[in-house]
Amino acid sequence: MTEWDSHWIRFLQARSQREEEQVLFEIVRSVLPTIRKAISRELARWQWALLQDGSVHPEDPNDICAEAIARLIGQMRALREQGNPARIQNILHYAAGIAQNTVHTVMRRNHPAFRILYDRIMYVLYGRYRNYGFAVWNGPLPGERVVGLRTWYGRPPEESDRYGEWRSHPDRLAARWAMFPDPPTIARFFTHLFEWLNHPIRLTDLLSGCARIWAPQIVASGAPSWSVQDLPDVEQESGRKMDYIKFFQDVIREIRSLPLRQRRALLWHWSGTDWCIIAAYAGCGLLEFADILEVEEEELYRIYPHLPLPDRVIAERLGVTQQQVINLRKSALERLRRRLRPADSITRW
User: What is the pTM of this model?
Assistant: First the structure.
């Protein structure tokens, strides 16, 4: 039995509030270094945005850490009340995931334009625009990510006069090629940029330049993260008025409460359009789905272009039979239909 197993069992069996608080203190003390490390790593990935956003002060890691700890304690208490203690298999990984998601939440709340832009760029690099031939890979330095054309995969970033021009004056290039930053425009712009550079660059430099070009336009437009042109006309289908935002926020909340295998069997069966609909109206980015599915960000973007996954593939990923996948999805949908109204608005899922 590990130290974590011992803490968790004591927490589940705590008979008084004082005993519970004591165990929680020991748990938080043991995971605090992991939480701080995860927050530091995630904030470093967002420096490209924080350095460009002059309207706010840089994020305080201590504030984010306090929010992450509060979330962790809340999740643990909720799991105990729900009788679902097996949800946490590895407390360190679980705490790190909460810390990362807390940073994403803070960025979405305090820097919405950059959160929107980041989602669009990742969607272009990993999502439906793979036919443009983009790729992202690990660079020679720890934690460094490199981006460019797929034919350059594995090459380190190179220093050049044009690379320096991109870092110093990305707006000059944007005036030549870029318009409003919808995903198709971003994809075309990246094609021109990489052909002009003729070598890979650091992902942080790409993000920083894009932030200087496009974030002000997104702020001014108030545009949502995703186009909602494909939204189903729920009001017409159900014959009732519906608050879309509240409904899809409820969808996210209820999906989170499902067992992990049901979440994966359900979401991997939905199309990318369905994900975008939920993301647009629930006010979240695609990275929210990484947290819900408990997968790494890179895996999420590898899976996304292939949605919906066949039951055979889902079964292989879950280590179950195809019939079990069908049963898991059926159970998940039945629970959603019981808890969400109007039920017929999710029939197509």
Answer: 0.49
